[in-house]
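Below sits the subject:

***
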Amino acid sequence: MVNKKRRILISAFIVLVLISSAEYFDIAAGNKQLDKNIEEQIKIINKFSFCGETIPFDKKKFSLKFKKELKHVARRGPDGARLLRNAQIILPAIEPILRQYKMPDDIKYLAVSESALSNKYTSNMGAVGMWQIVKETGLELGLEINDEVDERLHFGKSTKAACLLFKRNKNFFGTWTAAAVAYNMGSVALYKALRNQKNKSIHDLILNKETAGYIFRTLAYKEFIENCENYGQPKPNPSQRHFYHKLYITHSVSNLKEYALKNGINYELLKEYNPWIKGNRLTIKEGNKKIYELLVPSSALYSRLPFSIPKPATIDTIKQPKLDSLLDITENKLG
C-alpha cells in the first residue's frame, strides 16, 4: 500500500515537472521571438524621436539603453495587456488637453513612464497620481490638496497642471527632451547638473539611473502601445464604449453617501471614478465660487436622476478606430 502511494506521488511529480518544462520552453520560445522582433526595431532605430526632437542613436550607448527598456516593457505579459486596455481609454482623453495647451502628442507617453496610467502609486518623494506630482508642486500649480480632496488624483486637473509644468520647463531649458528630464528629476537638479558638468546637451549629462533611462523608457512604451502586435500582445477590443456624465457640486455636501443615495448614484463607483475625493464630504466655504466636477459612469446610475439626461455625446479622436474617452460626457448640474 505504501509503495503504491509512493508510485502515485512520484508519477504526479513527474507530470508536474513535464508541465513546468513545457511552459518553460514555451516562454523561452516566446522570448526568443520577442527578442528577434526587438532586434528588427533596433535596425530602424533612427525612426524614433521624442516630440519631433532627434535622439542621438548613432551613439551605441543610447541604442543599448533603448533596447534594454524595450525588452523590459515588451516582457510585461499580463501587466502589458492591462496597460494596453488602460491606454486605449486614457491616452485619447489626454490628447485634447495637450492640443489645448499646444503640447506635442508624445507628452502623453510620459504619463505611462511615470505611473503606467495608474493613480495607485506613491513615490518615495510623496509624488502621487497619474503624473506623479509632489504636494508642493501641486499647490504651486493651483491644485487643491487638503484633508478632503487631492486634485493630483483628478484626471483633468492633474493633466493640465502637468502641461503647465512641461511648458515652463520647455521655456527655461529650450527643448521638450530637457523639459521631460526636468519633470522627472526636478528642474533645479537638472540646472545644477548642466552647470556643474558644463554640458549644453541633455544627452551628454551623467544622470541617476532612473532619469538616464527616462526618455528611452518613454519611447519604449510608445513603441509597445502603438505596435503591440509586434511584441506578442493583441490590440485591445475597441468595441467597449465608455460613457460618462459630468456632475457639478455647487455647495457643500456633508455626507456623500447620503447625497449619492438621494440622487440615485452608486456610491462605490462614484468614489472609484473620482479618486481625488479623499473622504465622505466636500466643503465649499460661503462666498467661494468653487465648483467640483464629478465623473459618473452611466453604469453608476441606479435610476433616473431628478433631471433629464440626454444621450451622451461622443468626441471623435484622431486615431482609428474611434473610441469614447474620459471626456465623452454629458454635462449636467446638481445644485
Summary: The two ends are 77 Å apart (CA to CA). The first strand starts at residue 49 and ends at 50.
